[in-house]
Amino acid sequence: MLLVLGYYKQVGCFMRYPEQESSLLEFKRELPKNEQIIKTIVGFCNQKGGRLVVGIDNNGTIIGLKEELIQSTLEYLNKSIFEATTPPIIPKIYSQRIGNKSILIIEVSAGMNKPYFISSQGLEKGTYVRLGRSTLRATIDIIEELKWQARGRSFDSMPVYQTTRNDLDMKKIQTFLAARKKTRNISISDEILAAYNIECEEHSHLYPTVSGILCFGKKPEKFFSEVMIMCSLFSGIKGRKALASKDCVGTLPEQFSQAYDFVIQHLQRSFEIRGKRRYEQLAIPEEAIREIIMNAVVHRNYHLQSPIKIAIYENRVEIFSPGNFVGPMNVENITQGLTYIRNNAICKIFRELGYIEKLGSGFITVFDAYEKRGLPQPKVIEGENYIKCILPRPQKDTRFLMQDESLRDDSEQCIIRLFERGGDDISISDITTLCRISRATAGRKLADLIDKKIIKRIGKGRATRYRKN
In whole angstroms, how far apart are CA 335 and each of 205, 361, 381, 444? Predict the structure, then answer.
């Protein structure tokens, strides 16, 4: 393994560890107390595995440990961890020499018998997980999810006991069966409902599943009140004044469509006029918006009682999704095309509906779309039981403005020139963007031009456009 050299201070040259802290790696300058070590190891084992490296400063500088301390730790720590955990954890503990420094490494893989916990604290208080760079006590919801993982089941395939088949909308199911890609149209049957995990049998009773209710329920919000997408448009960049909002409810495909339409509707469109033609595009790549919302809907943790939230600010769009990355996915490898599915049944339904083209391509599509447009790269943040995606929203981009600066000297003349150069009807948003004037000023100027019979108004409300007489 190569070491990265070059961390210099006046006292000399220091070596740094070649990796950074993450959900899979934690640094400790000194050997922590035994209980803290066990908490961290339990957290790794309940998630994706990981390494605790002792003798490294928080900034990655290799401090090293005394050989005597390493030897004494190697003699007792393995047994201590084994005896203190349920199910017993057997870590791999070893030392490594880097230059003239020695470090201690405690390594575990992802456990197969989750949840793991500290025996003396019990299941509810002694279960820990790694969330980002922190080790935290697991909530009851997380403990339940760990149990499902150990049984090889996902939450979306679990039965919803307070429901019956009457809570499923058979018309929606039949529409889905008819809309599937590359499959022939078939009728609803017990076998089909079971094959798509829309319904399952338990103790001789048939129950709709979580995915069945969420994708095909008559009223999904009746059983999952927090499963919705909350969309908001804010003034400025801080989110204190909401200009518009919408709670997207219904089935998951319906929620996706409502949320996507809300975002598209409230984003500025830029256009360039060439001769009598107008070329228009959204300020943010539409494929990036689609993929991020789709990822949030398909991969969120539906066991957590919290909605997806979408916030549109002047300089960005934020998508907040409950739950962390599943499997060994993390912020560092999201663009490598890896695929780890939390909601198998929901993912299968969306894939057959044609919403998902290729598994593992979502984030790749997002970053590629931004790169092709020359826009600042999106950010993905994994927090404590949430993932937040930030799509930068470009400010007024001169590439899409008319090149004749003289048009902006007089707002009325600018508007008139737009009508002379453009062959299409023009909206008030087009005018505010190209002439760089306020909406109120644009409204007054348009009213004057209508009174002078230079232009005329077409349509009403949001569909209002203006045309030269």
Answer: 43, 8, 14, 48
Cα 442 from Cα 21, distance rounded (Å): 53
- pLDDT for position 7: 39
| Angstrom distances, CA of residue 360 to CA of 47, 253, 364 | 20, 20, 8
Residue type, 236: G
DSSP character at residue 284: S
pLDDT category, 42, cuts 50, 70, 90? very high
The answer to whether 373 and 182 are in contact (CB under 8 A) is: no
CA distance 65 to 97: 10
Q: What is the pTM of this model?
A: 0.64
* Strand 242-248 with 229-234, pairing: antiparallel
Mean pLDDT of 123-129: 92
Token readout for 123 is: 């299941």
CA distance 86 to 159: 28
Provide the phi-psi class of 331: left if phi over 0, else alpha when psi is between -120 and 50, else beta.
alpha
**Spatial distance between the Cα atoms of 161 and 94, rounded to a whole number of angstroms:** 49
What is the C-alpha separation between 24 and 282, in angstroms, rounded?
Answer: 38
Cα within 13 Å of Cα(469), Cβ side: 10
Neighbours of 179 (CB within 10 A): 12
Q: Are strands 92-98 and 277-282 parallel, antiparallel or unpaired?
A: unpaired
199-247 pLDDT, tens digit each? 998 878 899 999 999 999 999 999 999 999 999 998 888 877 788 899 9
- Rounded Cα distance, 348 and 252, in Å: 13
The domains found in the chain, sorted by start residue, are 4-127 (3.30.950.30), 155-223 (no CATH), 229-392 (3.30.565.60), 403-468 (1.10.10.10)
CB 314 within 8 A of CB 239: no
Whether residue 205 contacts residue 157, with contact meaning beta carbons closer than 8 Å, is answered with: no
Name the residue with tokens 């008819």.
Answer: 178
What is the largest distance, in Å, between two alpha-carbon atoms of the chain? Answer: 93
User: Which two three-digit tokens encode residue 463?
Assistant: 């569909």
Instruction: Looking at mean pLDDT, say which of 87-96, 132-141, 404-413 comes out highest.
Output: 87-96
Residue 325: other Cβ atoms inside 10 A? 20
Task: Determine contact, residues 105/94, Cβ cutoff 8 Å.
Answer: yes
8 Å CB contact between 129 and 142: yes
Taking the C-alpha atoms of residue 269 and residue 422, their distance in angstroms, rounded to an integer, is: 16
Residue 297 near residue 255 (C-beta atoms within 8 A): yes
Query: Phi and psi of 32, rounded to 5°?
Result: -75, 170
Q: Which residue has the higher pLDDT, 413 or 97?
A: 97
